[in-house]
Amino acid sequence: MLKLSVVVPFYNVQTYAPDALRSLELNAREDFEFLLVDDRSTDGTPALLERAAAALPGAVLLRRERNGGLATARNTGLDAARGEYVAFLDGDDWLAPGHLSRTLAAIEALNCDFVRTDHVQVTGRERAVQRVPYGPESVVADSRAGILPASRATAVDYPYAWAGMYHRRLLDRGLLHFTDGLRTAEDRPWIWRLHREAGSFAAVGLPGIFYRRGISTSLTQIGDERQLDFIRAFDQVIADTAADRESELLIPKAVRTYCAIIAHHIGSIERFEPAVAKELRSMSADALGRLPRAALDGALDSMGADRSALLRRLRRRTGSSSAAVPAPGAAA
């Protein structure tokens, strides 16, 4: 068995793909494979990947017949992975030389199910290290220790799949695949499931991944209907968490996070196309109406005044407060 499989989706990133591919070359080992997934690109990306498949040690080129989005492209790579460990990289980001070997050494030394790493956020010429929001470093803990408390950022609020490495046993258990078709927020139900259902994890620092922000090809910069998939992603987080054995403990965190994301999108609604903005308001109001009543009230009471007021107005907009469902185990 190979030691490591790295899943790297590409879609119309001809400007940035050379940096990603060069960084893979500087991380290559004879026991590593790089699964280059072309998600039906329409620019010069396929030609770049063809050349890389011939020159990059360990490269395996996988072509999708139709564009499926990041989640589905990652699943294509996971289905082909042969390594004892799995990692991810996006086609418009890049790695520091030797980063994969250092991360592999860390997870093997710790002997846990997965590790989470810091990363470097790149905005133009600016660089800023982003830390895993989890206190102990290089200390193995129960994976559920990365979920709570609800009152501050925790490891589940650091959803980036590429910021870490994962033992194959998680893949074999079905914990590494993403919800097919999600075009944004695909990491959110994924990271929640990982922390609920894996056994152990650790935060290890190692900021060797460079994550581009603010580029025109990024979905986060595009205000079209694909952005609305965050509703479906967080509905899945809520449903899966409500079915958990510790749902009463975990639901307040999931609801508070969902509310924060809704507030973020509504607060910057001007960046959406008009028809999409209208749909965003309607879908967000409906989403609030589906949340457990007690957890929603608690989330709104605990948020800052501006965000709380924004969500309360949205809640009243369609009378969603009267439609809210009770919390798990509570009386209706």
Describe this structure in words.
- The chain is an alpha/beta fold and 332 residues long.
- Helix content is 40%, strand content 17%.
- Strand 2, helix 2 and strand 3 form a beta-alpha-beta unit.
- Helix 7 runs antiparallel to helix 8, helix 8 packs across helix 10 and helix 10 packs antiparallel against helix 11.
The largest sheet is: 8 strands, mixed
- How do the SSEs run, as a string of H and E? EHEHEHEEHEEEEEHHEEHHHHH
Helix content: 40-55%
End-to-end Cα distance, whole Å, is 53 Å
Radius of gyration equals: 20 Å
Shape: globular
Topology:
Layout lengths: L1 E9 L6 H9 L6 E7 L6 H11 L3 E5 L6 H11 L2 E6 L5 E2 L3 H12 L3 E3 L2 E5 L2 E5 L10 E2 L21 E4 H5 L14 H11 L2 E4 L5 E4 L16 H14 L4 H21 L6 H17 L2 H10 L2 H13 L15
Parallel strand pairs: 1-2, 1-4, 2-3, 6-11, 7-12
Antiparallel strand pairs: 4-10, 5-12, 6-10, 7-8, 9-11
Helix pairs in contact: 6-7, 7-8, 8-9, 8-10, 8-11, 9-11, 10-11
